[in-house]
């Protein structure tokens, strides 16, 4: 029986969603020519809800739905044109029905006045001031009597003011609904069970990495054995290796036990490679399938927002319309569950702080109705949610005054801050531009919580504002929190993971190219000159454990969070891995600059960096260093401007390969732009002038072969050199690449820096 009630509840919520969204569209007059179809759909939803409720013996739900159906019928016929108060009643009806459905499932009484509500709906539908008294049946007696006749009046069978549903309703269940359809392919799975499966997939990936290490050790043993055998064959004086009379020396050696052992080792190596590739395909497929089960449309969270905005606007005597785009975008349910509160707060802020009163908007030459847009889009492995309004915008002068008044910053610090810096102050705890506390705002609590919640999801938030035109908040969130793509780096002999969502670039920096300005070490990355901070210093790692670069160079990570750009120095850069990030256990759950931890292939633990927190820390550190520099003048070392060499486009879907090739080419004096696939590279060629293209072969959207064919097929690029750098080393692949028009074909297994640079120099 409980399974049946659960099915009914899910069905009822779908019907109520149709009615709720329809009422909102009618009130905002957004139905246009589809108003007839919309009203028909709403009428059918109310009618179907009534029938389903009667089938499971939910008398109160059926009676309210019947009254709602009558109202929809009168609106549909044109006899009723609801006013604002009547729209409020329709919303109240939806809320009451939702509460009754919840009561049906839980057995906990809902504090709703069913009889009074039906009276109000009856008056709304018929215009009657009174309705005839009707005998009321409630409880089990009504259910045992079976479904009420179809033509019962709207006010029939009302229950008492407070409705309680008994746990057992089996005696009144319609036979037609006593079982779930066998064709139903949907299965409800608890999130904790999905998380457990994902963790097991992560353990498989860790085991795979361990296998890779074992394979590498075996490969090294084979290479050592081959070198030993070659040396023995060349230099031995042992009689066993001396050519016998009339027997070739090489033939004699092939019969030696060492040769047989090498052959066995090579065979095992090949079998391990084949097995690993097969396992990798299976694990990747399993991971993709499991992660897919966690994805849900964002619309499941967004659907309640139009109603919320409407109710809040009415409370504040404002006119506000909310438009939503991209609700079909799918995101991890764990992320979905945690973003509703931040989005709710941002929307409430937009209505309360952003949108002006109708009279004020009219005086400013704006429409009386304000507009708020909520847009959701997927960009790579991130979900971006933009909330923008056409209101007054954020007054930076008011923010500065409020921050000083509330003691968030002092007047001296506030005077040095730019408008963008002032905008970031609204995310500080205790900040509010409202001088009076209201039910909606003014307590200085909210945006700091929003920022913290977003960063706990390993995302970040950005804000831009134009006075008089509005403000836009952008939430950048990971598509999934189950796994995170990270770059493994080393600092002070420890391994750290940097989420690639906040990683813009990796470059190799020679020590003699690091300058000093305003008390800070600075480095040029591309066209930017940035303060350079050592990761070991930021994390307060022991100085004795730091590794000095063997060639006088180090790696600089360019991190980007919102509009902030920071450069972090590390000792070494390793590989990119998909990691399952777990929160730190108590009592170390909140370690500065650390977002969590993950287990690597060899069993070691890698701490995952909080990129957003690191960005803020480095900016604050830079400001302190500048203040110290102003008090204690130091010698400054200016940075030389980069040489303007030939421009090269690098296209590769591997972040590691792109970064490596870019670093090699830029160090050699070339200007480099990058693309993540062939299609992006082709689009870049339409807007940028380059002197040479370096491309991978196997890429999504457009392969390197196809890219080369397109380049050669366009007369604009007829003489543009193309180098294919790929792991496809078969002769037929090389022939295909050259036939497509590539000027050179480099194999990654034999790839080295000199080969790339010499090939580039030859073609440019």
Description:
By secondary structure, the chain is of the alpha/beta class. The strands form 5 sheets. It has a 6-stranded mixed sheet. The protein has a 5-stranded mixed sheet with strand order 2-4-5-7-6.
Summarize the structure in short.
This protein is α/β, with parallel strands linked by helices.
User: Please, what is the oligomeric state?
Assistant: single chain
The termini sit apart by 77 Å
Mean pLDDT: 75
How many helices in DSSP terms? 24
Q: What class would the helix/strand composition place it in? A: alpha/beta
What is the global morphology?
globular
Q: Taking strands numbered 1, 2, ... along the chain, how are they ordered across the largest sheet?
A: 10-14-15-13-12-11
Number of domains: 5
What's the story with the biggest beta sheet? 6 strands, mixed
CATH architecture tag of the largest domain? 2-Layer Sandwich
Question: What is the CATH third-level topology name of the largest domain?
Answer: Heat Shock Protein 90
Q: Which helices and strands appear, and what pairs or packs with what?
A:
Layout: H1 2-27, H2 35-55, H3 59-77, H4 84-106, H5 114-126, H6 139-144, H7 191-235, H8 249-254, H9 257-293, E1 295-297, H10 299-302, H11 305-315, E2 320-325, E3 330-332, H12 333-354, H13 358-363, E4 370-379, E5 382-389, H14 396-405, H15 411-416, H16 419-424, H17 447-456, E6 460-466, E7 470-478, E8 484-491, E9 494-499, E10 503-510, E11 515-517, E12 520-525, E13 528-534, H18 535-538, E14 553-561, E15 564-570, E16 572-579, E17 594-599, E18 605-609, H19 611-631, E19 647-651, H20 655-667, E20 671-675, H21 678-687, E21 692-695, H22 704-713, E22 722-726, H23 731-740, E23 744-747, H24 753-763
Parallel strand pairs: 2-4, 9-18, 13-15, 19-20, 19-21, 21-22, 22-23
Antiparallel strand pairs: 1-3, 4-5, 5-7, 6-7, 8-9, 8-16, 10-14, 11-12, 12-13, 14-15, 17-18
Helix pairs in contact: 1-2, 1-4, 2-3, 3-4, 3-5, 4-5, 7-9, 11-12, 12-17, 21-22
């Amino acid at each position: 029986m409980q399974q049946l009630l659960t099915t009914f509840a899910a069905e009822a919520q779908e019907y109520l969603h149709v009615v709720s969204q329809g009422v909102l569209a009618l009130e905002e007059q957004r139905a246009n020519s589809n108003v007839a179809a919309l009203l028909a759909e709403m009428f059918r939803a109310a009618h179907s809800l009534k029938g389903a409720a009667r089938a499971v013996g939910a008398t109160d739900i059926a009676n309210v739905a019947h009254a709602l159906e009558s109202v929809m019928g009168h609106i549909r016929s044109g006899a009723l044109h609801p006013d604002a108060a009547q729209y409020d009643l329709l919303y109240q009806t939806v809320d009451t029905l939702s509460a009754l459905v919840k009561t049906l499932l839980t057995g906990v009484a809902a504090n709703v006045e069913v009889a009074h509500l039906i009276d109000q709906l009856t008056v709304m539908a018929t215009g009657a001031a009174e309705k005839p008294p009707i005998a009321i049946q409630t409880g089990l007696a009504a259910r045992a009597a079976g479904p009420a006749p179809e033509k019962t009046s709207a006010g029939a069978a009302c229950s008492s003011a407070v409705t309680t549903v008994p746990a057992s309703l089996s005696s009144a269940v319609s036979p037609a609904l006593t079982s779930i359809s066998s064709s139903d392919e949907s299965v409800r799975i608890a999130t904790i069970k999905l998380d457990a499966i994902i963790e097991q997939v992560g353990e498989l990936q860790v085991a795979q990495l361990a296998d890779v290490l074992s394979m590498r050790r075996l490969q090294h043993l084979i290479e050592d054995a081959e070198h030993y055998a070659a040396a023995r064959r060349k230099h031995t004086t042992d009689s066993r290796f001396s050519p016998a009379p009339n027997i070739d020396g090489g033939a004699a050696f092939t019969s030696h036990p060492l040769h047989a052992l090498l052959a066995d080792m090579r065979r095992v190596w090949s079998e391990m490679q084949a097995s690993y590739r097969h396992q990798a395909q299976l694990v990747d497929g399993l991971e993709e399938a499991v992660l897919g089960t966690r994805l849900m449309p964002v619309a499941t969270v967004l659907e309640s927002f139009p109603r919320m905005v409407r109710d809040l606007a009415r409370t504040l005597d404002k006119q506000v319309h909310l438009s939503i785009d991209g609700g079909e975008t799918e995101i991890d349910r764990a992320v979905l569950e945690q973003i509703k509160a931040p989005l709710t707060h941002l929307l409430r802020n937009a209505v309360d702080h952003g949108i002006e009163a109708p009279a004020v908007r009219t005086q400013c030459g704006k429409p009386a109705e304000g507009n708020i847009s909520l847009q959701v889009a997927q960009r790579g492995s991130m979900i971006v949610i933009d909330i923008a309004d056409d209101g007054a915008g954020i007054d930076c002068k008011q923010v500065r005054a409020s921050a000083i008044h509330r003691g968030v910053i002092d007047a001296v610090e506030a005077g040095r801050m730019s408008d963008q810096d002032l905008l970031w102050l609204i995310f500080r705890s205790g900040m509010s531009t409202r001088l009076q506390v209201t039910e909606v705002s003014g307590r200085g609590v909210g945006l700091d919580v929003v920022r913290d919640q977003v960063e706990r999801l390993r995302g970040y938030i950005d804000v831009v504002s134009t006075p008089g035109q509005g403000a836009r908040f952008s939430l950048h969130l990971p598509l999934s929190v189950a796994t995170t793509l990270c770059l493994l780096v080393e600092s002070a002999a420890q391994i750290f993971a940097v989420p690639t969502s906040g990683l813009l670039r990796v470059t190799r920096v020679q020590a003699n190219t690091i300058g000093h300005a305003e008390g800070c070490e600075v480095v040029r990355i591309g066209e930017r000159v940035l303060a350079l901070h050592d990761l070991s210093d930021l994390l307060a790692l022991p100085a004795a454990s730091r590794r000095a670069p063997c060639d006088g160079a180090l790696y600089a990570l360019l991190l980007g969070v919102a509009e902030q750009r920071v450069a972090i120095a590390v000792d070494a850069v390793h590989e990119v891995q998909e990691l399952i990030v777990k929160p730190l256990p108590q009592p170390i759950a909140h370690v500065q600059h650390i977002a969590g931890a993950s287990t690597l292939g060899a069993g070691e633990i890698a701490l995952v960096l909080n990129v957003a927190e690191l960005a803020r820390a480095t900016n604050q550190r830079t400001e302190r260093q500048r203040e110290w520099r102003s008090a204690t003048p130091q010698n400054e070392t200016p940075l030389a401007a980069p040489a303007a060499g030939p421009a090269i486009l690098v296209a590769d879907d591997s972040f590691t390969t792109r970064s490596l090739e870019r670093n090699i080419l830029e160090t050699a004096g070339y200007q480099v732009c990058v693309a993540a696939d062939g299609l992006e590279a082709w689009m870049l060629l339409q807007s940028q002038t380059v002197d040479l293209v370096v491309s991978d072969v196997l890429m999504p959207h457009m392969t390197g072969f196809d890219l080369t064919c397109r380049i050669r097929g366009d007369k604009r690029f007829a003489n543009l050199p193309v180098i294919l750098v790929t792991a496809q080393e078969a002769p037929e692949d090389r022939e295909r690449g050259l036939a497509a028009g590539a000027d050179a074909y480099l194999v990654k297994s034999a790839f080295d820096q000199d080969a790339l640079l010499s090939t580039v120099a030859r073609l440019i």
